[in-house]
């Protein structure tokens, strides 16, 4: 079969998930390797997904009172040393500019790995009185973290992201902001990306360098590993004290502000691929799919087929559906494979016999089911199906994930759980030694606290459990 | 008067235009200086203008078949040397990363000053056959050019821009693309920014390093100087040969592609300020103004005023007008100054007596005229006025500019012309010596060829004129 020769190009998803991932991202032209090791080029098909992600998130940020701005790429190296934990966390990964304009610089400059420091220095300048608070700014930009091992979208030296940075008069307000943004990320992940996520606080070991508390959202990939899909940090007064972010309060005294920061990145595209993809390639949820519907003519040279397809395309475009009419010379079978690999949610097939019968076939990429529908008013069917695909993809991913959450009472059970490709919930005494031991013996890390759950004993040392932790191997 | 004390904060636009510019950009919170010399922070009010510019341009790019993508920030230094003119033009301005991840790099990496080289290397990889052509990609990103003297928006080490890069099978197609994008820039500058521009070819001296031909658009600022507001380059096969951008043509032979590139940047915000601003501050055209209408209540505590204002705000929002209701504690006079300085196109004043009479005052920022209008259906009046402001600002800028274009037949006349704050049209023999002489003696540079115009003699050497050039001092 023609299908087979095509599908063979993608490695077996069950047998070699990492190679399957690489094959899919390259063959669908989402991304390519840049000339410098560890860099990626986000190609038009991948960037179109990012644009859809941006539009959805940006409207949510603005609806909650945030404004966009742009801060400099280059940060004086001395800024990093002002917050002790921060420099320890980021200095080893920084790319450094030492020469510019033909001269050696007096002070080396870091390419931002994240912007708490440079933004903190500006907030310190802008903030005078309690009346200036809260400050709620977001920026969309590139950041750089020099990594040893890299994979497109998941871990590259440069990536694109948004980073929100806010300053508040009280700890309560900054904490409320931190939790609000975490909730927005979760709602977005589930309703837009169709990826169910578990949100919760991170352990001291896993938190952001310089934060008081980090909250993450964890998504399960098809291999059972976890992908940290977004984080929201309550920074307390750590950066406020390091950068003198102070204000004159109502009571006439100078106070340090409380700050938060939160971000998601082009990693989300990696999450989309690994949460939904299958042996045929990508499976994209309609809300972020660059093309939501492709129309493939069958026996296009027969009278009327092209006209019917073009008319349908126009109708769908008027309803703001992102639609392509593939009227190229390739065979229908070749086109089916191509658009399936690209993850287009719906394919409409229209041939002379369909037109005679007033019918058209619609193929759903998520279920790979194909059905016949009335050609009249088919645009309404398309809208309904797009909604169904969006919802069903979330529910299907949720069922898949929920079936892979297990409980463990011992290190052996943790190991068995993660080796079986599960999220493992286990009691934890709260000490770093036990957390390190899990990592060393199972390659799983503490993803987040399982909020609201309790256990009697630490699965590692058997002492009293203070928390339940979700352990998983992670990207 | 309260007005006066406020206005005093901005330097006299007639006496000290550079200081006026600095005062306006800082006091309206468009921008601030970053911690590293030569860098800028684009603050929310400035960035909102950039977002409006992006949306307008992006839809034009997409409507003409371009897709967005993202290429790496870091470029191997060796790439620059592959195109001889290109390296000469950009190497002196490059910022260089020598260390990353705690180690010295084997090859130093340049932060992109422009991306012809790195994009060329990718096109070389992607392009196989004539069927893959044309490639039409744009990217929105940051770039870096290390400059000695810097001014916010006009010249900073880092700035934001878009750069389009296309590859074509023939020179004709690449030239057509170059001219199409120039035309799109002109239409955008005039209809969106309300800035009349002169487009035309640049001289060899002024062209982009590595281009066969550069076309620019030049806008007149209120001091009579020119600002290059955008450029479009026909690159011939220069980069195709340097980066092996080749394809198998229909005739079975390998051919080099022809490429183009084109860009505009956050400089456009500087152009907006200097083309339209006045002693009170910014004057923004409605299409890019972050706030198009501000409603200021008069005697807000009197019954009904706030309600009427809020209702009007809602109505305008439903009509997609970007509107603010300024119900803060400041006096109306203070608010008038503040919003005038910020350049908001329309101000609606509503007080108890206005409501009694079924009227409201509307102040137009561009003309500073204030009139009374019926409160009923005032939203329709607002839409009409916004349209008028947009059109009138262009016509007023055009009249101002057209009154400042003069002809010169000698070096003395060129000097007199540019010292009077004019664009000066003069015959030119075409030799570099005469062009350099104008620059040395008048500080004016050749902006663009005056397309379609002819002159008898070169204003500098008196030899036969080959072209008419527009000379001006420039930003």
Identify the CATH architecture of the largest domain in chain A: 2-Layer Sandwich
Q: What is the spatial order of strands in the main beta sheet of chain A?
A: 3-7-8-14-11-10-9
Shape of chain A: globular
- How many discrete structural domains of chain A? 3
What is the terminal separation of chain A in angstroms?
A: 36 Å
What characterizes the major β-sheet of chain A?
7 strands, mixed
| CATH fold name of the largest domain in chain A | BirA Bifunctional Protein, domain 2
- The quaternary organization reads as homodimer
Q: Which runs of chain A of at least 5 residues are low in confidence (pLDDT < 50)? A: none
Radius of gyration of chain A: 25 Å
Instruction: Give the strand content of chain A.
Output: 25-35%
Q: Number of DSSP strands of chain A?
A: 23
Total of DSSP H or I helical runs spanning 4+ residues of chain A: 15
Helix content of chain A: 25-40%
The CATH homologous superfamily of the largest domain in chain A is termed: Bira Bifunctional Protein, Domain 2
Question: Which pair of chains forms the biggest interface, and how many residues does each contribute?
Answer: A-B, 56 and 56 residues
> What is the CATH first-level class name of the largest domain in chain A?
Alpha Beta
